Amino acid sequence: MLRAKNQALIQMQDIPTAVNALQFYANVQPSIRGRNVYVQFSSHQELTTMDQNTQGRGDEPNRILLVTIHHMLYPITVDVLHQVFSPHGFVEKIVTFQKSAGFQALIQYQSRQNAVVARTALQGRNIYDGCCQLDIQFSNLDELQVNYNNERSRDFTNPNLPTEQKGRSSQPGYGEAGGMYGLQAAGRGVAFPQMANAAAIATAFGGGLPPGISGTNERCTVLVSNLNPDRIDEDKLFNLFSIYGNIVRIKLLRNKPDHALIQMGDGFQAELAVHFLKGALIFGKQLEVNFSKHPNITQGAETHEYVNSNLNRFNRNAAKNYRYCCSPTKMIHLSTLPLEITEEEIVSHLEEHGTILNTKLFEMNGKKQALVMFETEEQATEALVCKHATSLAGSIIRISFSQLQSI
Q1: Where in this protein does the record put region Disordered (predicted)?
Q2: 82, burial (CB in 10 Å: exposed 0-12, middle 13-18, buried 19+)
Q3: Distance (Å, whole) CA 334 – CA 361
């Protein structure tokens, strides 16, 4: 496993089986945990224990530890790491950085024995309940070089180091400085950095994450294929994908009419969309939803902009919206209804999209809401994408999926 590069080397028994594997995946797109992966021949003829990443060497003891943090729902700083690792020995230096494997840190102890004890005690443990899991290897570095004392790097043997010059990376030699929740594609202006949602995510999921969600994805753009080009448009895609996060922009691909690119607010929201919408049925087609190789969508004449849309759901009540994320269901929930609305008017507004089995109109906190159950998930999905943010009796209504099984 080349953790720092998000790559792996696999040695087959012989060359013919390696050729067979490569030929098979030339025609079939392999994916792991919803992420497309790519297979090619390596220049290596044989794997040895030296084929480790440049900063981690596995189990050979060293006084410097390489720490990768998985499921990082809360920001991790030098002070947090020092609090976790200092009980096991004197920590001389800490450097944190961002790599493709996720948020990482190098921690230098005074002695190799301290590092061994810390790794034994902390490997696989969570810093916080249900998240921020520690994956610890021994580094192959002999000495950390720390230039600045700040929240991303610290030399505890030299408290007189300056803080970094503003706007510059703390430790460019170790990787891109910053946390996993920083702005992605800095300078491109992604409007919804994940840091702003960290607390909401933790609140929504009780400090954990839904099954199948890693929380470590950084790619904001998803590729949707097998669309019905005669029925779909950008606004309908917005209505569906905005259930899982804020939408920055959408582009229908002119050369592939059944394909679209959708740029979400951050990597976590994109992961929710891929997880919950893969295989969803809409307009007679089963959607394919995967992460795109494009980090973002370039603004242009063929893109529709939603970055400033007041219909983005996660600008307000983010925790509530995260909590309601689910795959399409037969039941939809309508809110912001006019107080004098009737069930007959709701049915009349939605019945063109399928057979309505049941409805329930109710009031909560002085506001009218409704539940509508369709015969199939596809009918409910069509009603949502076509009628969310439409006018009903003078009010712009909001529609989302309900996880209730019956009315």
Answers
A1: 152-174
A2: middle
A3: 9
Residue 265 predicted with pLDDT over 70: yes
Count of CB atoms situated within 10 Å of the CB of 181: 24
pLDDT score, position 19? 87
Provide the 10 A C-beta neighbour count for residue 175.
20
Q: Can you state the angle between helices 78-85 and 112-122, rounded to 10 degrees?
A: 90
Q: Compute the distance between CA of residue 220 and CA of residue 184 in angstroms, rounded to an integer.
A: 8
pLDDT of residue 164: 64
pLDDT at 202: 67
Which pair of tokens denotes residue 189?
Answer: 């202006």
Please say whether the beta carbons of 324 and 403 come within 8 A: yes
User: What gap in Å lies between CA 45 and CA 190, rounded to an integer?
Assistant: 42
Residues with Cβ < 8 Å from 282, sequence gap 6 or more?
Answer: 227, 228, 232, 240, 378, 381, 382, 385
* pLDDT score recorded for residue 192: 33
- Is the C-alpha dihedral spanning 76, 243, 247, 291 positive or negative? positive
Q: Is the overall model pTM greater than 0.90, yes or no?
A: no
CB-CB contact of 243 with 311 (8 Å) = no
Query: What letter represents residue 392's amino acid?
Result: L
pLDDT band at residue 197, thresholds of 50, 70 and 90?
low
Rounded to whole angstroms, the Cα distance separating 59 from 116 reads 10
pLDDT tens by residue, 17-72: 888 888 888 888 888 877 888 888 887 777 765 433 444 445 688 999 999 988 87
The three-class DSSP label of residue 261 is: strand
Mean pLDDT, rounded, for 376-401? 95
Mean pLDDT within 326-336? 95
The CA distance from 19 to 12, in Å, is 10
**Helix or strand holding residue 108 (H, E):** strand 102-109
Gyration radius of the chain over CA positions: 25
What are the strands, taking DSSP E only, across 268-390? 281-282, 285-286, 288-291, 303-305, 331-337, 356-364, 367-374
Q: Give dist(CA 207, CA 199) in Å, integer.
A: 9
